[in-house]
Structure formats: structure tokens, C-alpha cells
Write a structure and sequence with these properties.
The protein is an alpha+beta fold. It is built from two helices and five strands.
Length: 124
């Protein structure tokens, strides 16, 4: 009976607590967060001694306990490296796509010019 209770209730709750603790330990200045009261803000300062966090909510600075952070919606520092790499590959693929589109436009305009010149020759 205790084994079933452990696997159904205690173990999932511990996993969730551990995941939340890991999220809070990786919290950095500039991260977008949501508090347990559903206040959205940006982390301005983290005080590990007092276990508090200062949030910037549209110019209003509020101090909360770290436990009041419900979730992190957008990471800043850790995702900037990945974003830079992604932007480079997107820029390269955009340039390739732009070149292909330009080639298609040129071929269409050439064929249109040929048809136009053929039509004018026929009308003479």
C-alpha cells in the first residue's frame, strides 16, 4: 500500500519540487518570470543570502521571495548563444532563398520580354 502511495503521490511531487528548485538556481538577471500571483516581470536583482528576487514590472521594482517565482517564461543569457547561431543559419538560408527568388524573377521577366517582343513582331 505504501509503495503505491509513494509512486502515485510522493515521487511525482518530489520530481516537481526538484525541477522547480533547479529552475530557481539557474535564474539570472534579465529572465522573464511569472510569480505565483500571476505578476509578469523581468528579474532585476537576485539576493541569494535573503533568498529574494527584485522584479521590474514596467518600471515598478518589486521584491519577492524566490519561492514566489512560479515559472520562467524566457531565459536571456543561456539562450543568446543559441539564438546567435540560429540567426546566422537563418540569415544564410534567407540569403540563399533571396538569390533563388531573384533568379526566378529574372527568368520570368526574360520570358515575358521574349513573349512581348514576339507579340509585337506578329502584330507588324
Amino acid at each position: 500500500m505504501f509503495v503505491v502511495l509513494y509512486f502515485l503521490m510522493i515521487r511525482p511531487q518530489r520530481k516537481q519540487q526538484q525541477k522547480h528548485q533547479d529552475t530557481l538556481s539557474k535564474l539570472q538577471k534579465g529572465d522573464h518570470v511569472i510569480t505565483i500571483g500571476r505578476l509578469h516581470g523581468v528579474v532585476d536583482e537576485i539576493n541569494n543570502e535573503d533568498k529574494t528576487v527584485t522584479l521590474d514590472a514596467d518600471g515598478i521594482f518589486l521584491v519577492f521571495d524566490l519561492r514566489a517565482i512560479a515559472q520562467v517564461t524566457q531565459k536571456t543569457a543561456s539562450t543568446t548563444v543559441a539564438t546567435d547561431d540560429t540567426e546566422k543559419s537563418e540569415n544564410e538560408s534567407t540569403e540563399d532563398s533571396t538569390e533563388k527568388v531573384q533568379e526566378e524573377v529574372n527568368s520570368v521577366s526574360e520570358s515575358t520580354e521574349k513573349e512581348t517582343s514576339e507579340d509585337t513582331e506578329e502584330s507588324k
